[in-house]
């Protein structure tokens, strides 16, 4: 049980760590891409723009860390 | 995707991690002796190579390709953005640069305080070296497997990682303590851009998005993200300067 918990904590720190907004944002981008995939032009524009917005937002949040 | 782009991405990512591992190996070797340190580092490299050899083909064979692209793409997107964010904050002065010299001095002081274990293998040197190489190497394993497995080019990815580790080890042993001269933040930014581009491409492709130009779209994404990162760094630097001047 202890090893299982340590294993879970390792992956949590690895993927979420101190930037939960990136993990949640990346998941939201994936969902948006899945919803928009039949509108190819929209998907290939919205997905990269959302990634840029996530980077800028997370970096701005990081100023106060 | 070109073999060269894959090779470059894995090479850069592995080189950054290898520099961090080398700091620990050098500190251990200089203070505790080289034999046990090399044994620890060698054992860790063998364990990491075994992980790649077992995990890579197993994942590629057992997981459907679209599911693999979504999971791998999502992971790469998260890692890439984490690396980019850190590089942006360091480039703009909001976060201290990763100082390998300071880490080296700290490790040397810590290891010198532990008494020697007499003749035979130095357990402290072996353990410190093993842990340092294994933990830093885990990220490399994940990058090699996630970049290599979905495209069926695990060998190319492993080659990139191996070349980076070898090059950093040779250069590191030659320059010894001047690890701070490695442009680590610029490398981290480059790796972050590549991982984010691959991640976006694969994750979106996995859920059914058809990119114009197929693999060439990765280069387009790389350009867009590089431009956005440079603009963000410039704007945040200006903002920080204005705040400092206002406070003065």
Structure summary:
Chain A is an all-alpha fold and 65 residues long. Helices cover 83% and strands 0% of the residues of chain A. Chain B has helices at 3-32, 34-62, 65-91, 100-112, 123-148, 154-175, 184-206, 217-247.
Task: Write a structural description.
The complex is a heterodimer of chains A (65) and B (248). Chain A has one domain (16-62). Chain A contains three helices and no strands. The relative contact order of chain A is 0.12. The mean pLDDT of chain A is 89. With 65 residues, chain A is mainly alpha-helical. Chain A has helices spanning 2-15, 20-36, 40-62. The termini of chain B are far apart. Chain B has helices at residues 3-32, 34-62, 65-91, 100-112, 123-148, 154-175, 184-206, 217-247. Chain B has one domain (3-247). The interface between A and B is medium-sized, with 31 and 33 residues.
Key traits:
heterodimer; A: mainly alpha; B: 248 residues; 81% helix
